[in-house]
Amino acid sequence: MTSPLCAIVGVGPGVSLAVARRFAREGFSIALMARTLNRVEEYAQLLRDEGAEAHAYQIDVASPASVADAFIQVEERQEAPDVLVYNPSIYREVLPSQLDPEVLVHDFRINAVGALSCVQAVLPTMRTRKTGKILITGGGSALNPLPLHASLGIGKAAVRNLAFSLHAELLPKNIHVGTVTIDGAVSPDTRFNPTDIAEAFWTLYQQPAGQWEREIMFE
């Protein structure tokens, strides 16, 4: 029997790597996906050194064509994901009155639209299997906007709305969509420790049908 596959989009040393380790510990194979292939390959090698099956893929979530191609590669090399984790975001400090509209559109493609592209890439197989988990990293700026984080807050508000809409749409199809909303700065040795946040993602994954939450607030 093959191991289930968790595809993690937007890989860095914090939440996403902690999530990868948490799922790998439970026997999942891992597909790590990010824009910079050399960097994501380092994380894949780190997981392999820890005994996991992990592979790296290049993806530009701002490009639907790149997203589609990346998930084709995942299926060809491993298999279609059982779990999708969407983690990318762009953080920049600029007041909303000074935010260039084109910059906002660029950031929005990564903070929100990329999530939709990735969901649409994995949904056909999940629909066929009649099962699947789609987990999205949210942010507290969706609920408590800060002027300097306007671009990120707009994106996080949108991706939260998208997650809730998908949750309602796909619930009857036995596909669980949920978001972990992190209302604080991720850092070790704080209450926003990546390892603890990863446990919230695992909690969403483990929830049985009939008890699916659409959001866990980490605050």
Account of the protein in words:
This protein has 219 residues and is an alpha/beta fold. It has a single domain, classed as Rossmann fold (3-Layer(aba) Sandwich), CATH 3.40.50. Helix content is 46%, strand content 18%. It has helices spanning 15-25, 37-49, 64-77, 101-129, 150-170, 194-206, and strands at 5-9, 29-34, 54-58, 83-86, 132-139, 175-182, 215-218. It has a seven-stranded parallel β-sheet with strand order 3-2-1-4-5-6-7, sandwiched between helices. Strand 6 (175-182), helix 6 (194-206) and strand 7 form a beta-alpha-beta unit. The protein is globular. One of its GO terms (biological process) is siderophore biosynthetic process.
Topology diagram in text:
Layout: E1 5-9, H1 15-25, E2 29-34, H2 37-49, E3 54-58, H3 64-77, E4 83-86, H4 101-129, E5 132-139, H5 150-170, E6 175-182, H6 194-206, E7 215-218
Parallel strand pairs: 1-2, 1-4, 2-3, 4-5, 5-6, 6-7
Helix pairs in contact: 1-6, 3-4, 4-5
